Amino acid sequence: MKEFYPKLGIGFLCRLFGKTRHAYYDGLWRKENSLIKEDIILQEVRTIRRDLPQVGTRKLHYMLQNQLKSHAISFGRDYLFDLLAAHQLLIRKRKRKVITTDSRHWMRKYSNLIKGMVINRPEQVWVSDITYIRLTHQWGYLSLITDAYSRKIMGYSFRQDLSAEGCIDALKMALHNRLYHHPLIHHSDRGSQYCSQNYVDLLLKNNIAISMTENGNPYENALAERVNGIIKKEFNLYTSALGFEQTKRQVNASILSYNQLRPHASCDYLTPHQAHLKSEQLKKRWKKYNKKFNDKKTMV
After folding, report:
1. Model's pTM, two decimal places?
2. How many whole angstroms separate alpha carbon 289 and alpha carbon 108?
3. H-only helix segments in the chain
4. Terminus-to-terminus CA distance in the chain, angstroms?
5. Among 260, 289, 284, 279, which residue's Cα sits nearest to residue 120?
6. Which CATH number applies to 125-277: 2.30.110.10, 3.40.50.150, 3.40.190.10, 3.30.420.10?
7. Residues near 204 by beta carbon (within 8 Å), at least 6 away in sequence
């Protein structure tokens, strides 16, 4: 025998579970608003990552705060971690050590002048280093000169060889971009490129003091290596399937975005370009995250 089940209305079901119709519809509205909020946040994340493709979640959280004020949207860091994880948008950390320095040469090596120094103004110390980018059938070598105060890349050169010419080109660009003429120290490792006569002469000609690492310890030039890692990791430049010239254009665009768009926690969340125009001690907003939190958030 066919049984008859009456059509149950929303009101009846709500009463059955001890809820009101208003509570039911209020829940639907909240869910809808939550989905709209998520969609807006994800759109803004994708917009930022067009220029900063590998920027981490903590910096995204900072950058999104002002952008989403007009939408009356606010959210915490953990919420953003969970949202990006759900959409597979977290960035996996990559640890890699590359050695491009040959300090076993006869040329003069200089003392470390910046050990223990407090950096409190732009163009007080420039740090230099060379890193490499793996291309399809060759290597590309990127020479960078970074201001230690603002983290701004002052000069760079991308070449197909490890000769001193790349470092000299980067130094010439940095000198051209220099805004201040206070006493300046150039700090580097003891690689042959930085000890070469032409490079040293260019520094001395511009009254720049020369400082070098002393013990081969990477921490003596940690800031330069840190910037190398940011450029390669956050702008997908560990390897390139493009040709040399196209990769060179990608390097140019990446450094422009880095200088103009990427905030630094160590520079009061200013971009390098903004920080370079300051003259006071910048607040450092980075901190060590506890192990439990880092274990939970293994990606950034």
Report:
1. 0.69
2. 42
3. 10-16, 21-51, 57-67, 77-86, 164-176, 192-195, 197-205, 222-234, 244-261, 272-275, 291-296
4. 61
5. 279
6. 3.30.420.10
7. 210
pLDDT tens for the chain, residues 1 to 300: 445 445 556 666 666 666 665 555 555 445 445 656 676 777 788 788 778 887 888 888 888 887 777 667 777 888 888 888 887 778 766 555 444 444 454 467 889 999 989 999 999 999 999 998 888 888 899 999 999 999 999 999 999 988 899 999 999 999 999 999 899 999 998 888 898 999 999 999 999 999 998 875 667 888 998 999 899 888 988 888 888 999 999 999 999 999 999 999 999 999 999 999 998 888 887 666 554 445 444 445
6 secondary structure, DSSP code: P
Angle, nearest 10°, between helix axes 222-234 and 244-261?
A: 110
The residue ranges of every structural domain in the chain are 10-87, 125-277
